[in-house]
Structure formats: structure tokens, C-alpha cells
Amino acid sequence: MNIRIFNTLTKKKEFFETVEPRKVRMYVCGPTVYDSSHMGHARSVVVFDVIVRYLQNQGYEVTYVRNFTDIDDKIINRAKELGIDTKELAEKYIKEFYEDMDALNVRRATLEPRATEHIGDIIQVVQKLIEKKMAYPLDGDVYFSVESFKEYGKLSGRKLEDMEAGARVAVNERKRNPFDFALWKSAKPGEPAWESPWGKGRPGWHIECTAMSSSLLGETIDIHGGGKDLVFPHHENEIAQSEAAFGKNFVRYWIHNGFVNINQEKMSKSLGNFLLIKDIIKIYLPESIRLFLLSNHYRSPIDFNEKAMEEASGALEKIYTFLERVEDQPGMPGKSDKETGHLWQQFCDAMNDDFNTAQGLGVLFSAVRNLNRILDESGDQLSHEDWEQIKAGYSDVLEIGDILGIFKQSPKSYFEQKRQKGLKDEAIDPKLIEKMVDERTEARKAKAWTKADKIRDELLDMNIILEDRADGTVWKYND
RNA sequence: GGCGGCAUAGCCAAGUGGUAAGGCAGCGGUCUGCAAAACCGCUAUUCACCAGUUCGAAUCUGGUUGCCGCCUCCA
């Protein structure tokens, strides 16, 4: 049980040691709820969902906090456009976020705080920073002074001097340093605002995470995660605020996931290629999407495209086919076997190495192939030894699926679901298919192969694939 | 301009010092009336290029080329 994690702070894989034995305090930056969630959100959320599942499986008690940023400029602007208040807007997208994530079989975090629920904590941290002279009020705003924090830049590997050279930040003459960032922003008329020692206003973006992390998890936590894009400035600023305020190491392990590209392009509003989760799940099964997202190492970029999704769907089906095959074995005792075997251990080896799900999937597929071979070779009389291997493999596959958040349904319902979806997409009456399959069965009995093959071809045109098994013909939808 | 990442077969993708996982596609085969599914075999003497360290490098060092990301809201 020696997990190694790539720490963005040290740029090295380090053995995972928690502050408190067997307990993990973990914070992951959640969405700013001003718009629907896209595939990038899906990746981040799924990756950390898998990490939490694995840590729990390995015996850690995980307190997992994932926040909602429910107040900020983007929310204010969007609400203004729509003519609704910010709270209403935030609620709408929080609800959507849950719908998307439930569909993707993402478990809820232990705590899911909202920035607006922690205004008091935020004000306290800001005050503390002012007292320590590491922040300064300015006309109702409060800024963090980056120069006061000597280690500023340690996460992103930047130096203030270097950045100033090629500065692309809008210069605000009033700030002491162009990189000073707002902890508190004064409210313009009509904007949502909270009372504070500096007048009415709202928190800056970065401070909420410091406040919520420290108040819910403590001043030093084990893991802080998020997308790579958050390294600078968001997480850099969080470190500065937190370590300045509390005088302690803020985070032990920083974990950042890579981007999702769309057909080799970065997702961006300007390119108009933002793929929303709610649209993607209309086309692909959520489990296929999870499998796709986990098929690359979490730190590498991943390219979303039709071919990749078809491969992921095919891979999912391959494993469901195996599971169904095992469950159809006479004498299959169901999922009783809880003992984990060789395969599970190999999967853990992959996961222990910086949560290498891509390698873990390799283990899974080669195991499925081996187990299928055993089934092929033994025909209908499985030896005791073979049967033990199959049972152990089967339960390991399910255990792995549990970590990855796939194979949640039975193979029967998976295939049924696919058939239903196919019929709906193609607008086909299932009775027609049953009728054609029956006709073909009759033709085959009469050895009228030409007729039988003609029916099969007709079904194929409807994307229906037939499998003639020993106990009858089964049809599947081919997407 | 500053900082960082990546380059492995037709495609996707693991592998950070010990002689190239896995998936898809392709070809050949087993099975099948024929298929489908499944399985077996074949498919990178080689890991962008050049030099170096080493008994040994895809893995380490230096350089070259190409692609990408961050530095502005962003998962």
C-alpha cells in the first residue's frame, strides 16, 4: 500500500503520506456555476472521483470537499444578461451540474460548500492578512500583496520579476504590484453584496477556496486538486493567501488534470467547440464516456473525437460481453466472491503509480482476454481449477469497475438499454425485429441459407447484428 | 518575452536505466451452414533527430527539430 502521486509543487512523484494516518483531507476546485458543464469539467470530476474511490478502497477515510463558486464577475454578468438574480442563476447551474454528474455516475463529495455560505470565514481570513500586513485595503477593495509572500510563484515556477517583463496583466496603477490580486471587491450599485469591514462587497475568486478549505478541512490538507489551468494564478494565489494567513504549509500534494481537446483543438468559446456533458450523454453511454476519460493518464491531454468514443464504447461492450458470458455459465453463483485476486493486485500496482488508469485498463483487457480463452478452451466442462480462475477474475473485473465507476449495471440491462436506445434512434418497432429473427430461425432450420442470410443483411442495414448462439439467436444494436 | 509539457507501430496509448503492456484497425487461422462473438498467430530489432554518460537508455545529460499548454475567465 504505497501510493505515489505526482506533486505539481515538487514536479516529482512522491510517496503519499497523510497528515493523519489513514485519513485524507482533500479539496478539489469545483465549477463556477454560470453555465452548463462541459467535457473539461467531466474529466476533472471523474478523475478525482476515481481517486477518491481508490483511496477509500485502500482503507483511507476520505473527507472530500468540492466547492461551488456561486458568486463572481461571470455570474454577475450572466445574471444581468438574463435579467435574473445571481442566486437564481447559480441554483439553476448547480442543479444541472448534479444532473450531469449523476448521469456520469460521479459520487457526491463529502462536503459541497458554496462560496456565499462562507462569507464570514472569508472576511476573517482577509482580516488576518491585513493584520499581518500581507494585504491592504484600497477604496473598498482589499488586495493581497504578492511581494509580501516570499515564496510567491513556487507552484507555477514563476518569478515575479520574470512575469513583469512580459506582463500581460491590465495595469492598475493603484496596486502596489501588478500581480496583487483582489481578496475583496467593493460592490457597484445593484450588485450582490455583503457587509464587511471595508464596506459592502463580495469576495475575490481565490479567497473562497482558502476560507472553505481551512474552515472545513484544517489549515494543512493532504490533497488539493483541479485542472491544470488553475495552477496559475488560482492555486498559486491560494498558497500565498493560506500560508500567509496561517503560517503553515497549505497543501501536501497538488494534483492537476490535463485538458480535453476536441478534434485536436482546445475547447474554447471563440472556436464554438465547447461540448456540453448534457449533449454528449445523449449520444454516448455515460460509462463509455468515463472509460474514454480514464483511457489516458490524468495528467496528459486527451482528444475527444468520434473515433476515440467509438473505441471506448467498443471496449465497454467487450467487457460487458465477457461479464454476460460468465454470468450465463451454468452454476454461476453470482457476485458472491468478495476475495480479490491476482488481477486486482496488478490493477492496484497501476493505480499506486500516480493513479495510472490507462495502465490499469491494460491489465483489465488482457485479463478479459485470458479469461475468455479459458472459457473457449474448456468448452462446456470447466475444470474446478478453471472455474476458480473465472470466478476470481470475474469478481476482480467487477471490483475494478467499481473503482472506475463502470459496469454499474448488469450485462443484461446494459444490452437491453443499448437495444432500446438503438430502436429509438432508428425508430424501429422491436416486434418487427423479433418477427424477422423468427423467420430467419425457421429458414435456418429448413437450411434455406439464402433466405436466412437475406434477412440478416436486412437487419444489418438497420444496424442490428445477430449472434447465433447455442441456445438461440441474440440480436444487438450496433452503434 | 517568461514558464512548463509532449514526441513510442496505420491510429489511440502504458512504460523514467535491464532489453517495447493494452486497445482499435489490418492480415492469416480456429469456431460457424456462412456470419457474429470469442480465441490463436502475425504486424515497432525499435521509441522525432544528433551527440554524450553507462556493461546496458524509449527511459539519464546536452543540443536540434516539431507540436501543445499556461502567463486574461477557464477543468
What does this structure look like?
This protein is 48% helix and 15% strand. It is an alpha/beta fold and 479 residues long. It folds into three domains: 4-257, Rossmann fold; 307-408, Up-down Bundle (Four Helix Bundle (Hemerythrin (Met), subunit A)); 414-477, no CATH class. The strands form five sheets. A four-stranded parallel sheet has the order 4-3-9-10, sandwiched between helices. It has a four-stranded antiparallel sheet with strand order 5-6-7-8, covered by helices on one side. A three-stranded mixed sheet has the order 12-11-13. The longest helix is centred in the middle third of the chain and has 22 residues, at 306-327. It is elongated, with a radius of gyration of 27 Å. The two termini are 41 Å apart. The mean pLDDT is 92. The chain binds one RNA strand of 75 nucleotides through helix 1, helix 5, helix 7, helix 10 and helix 12.
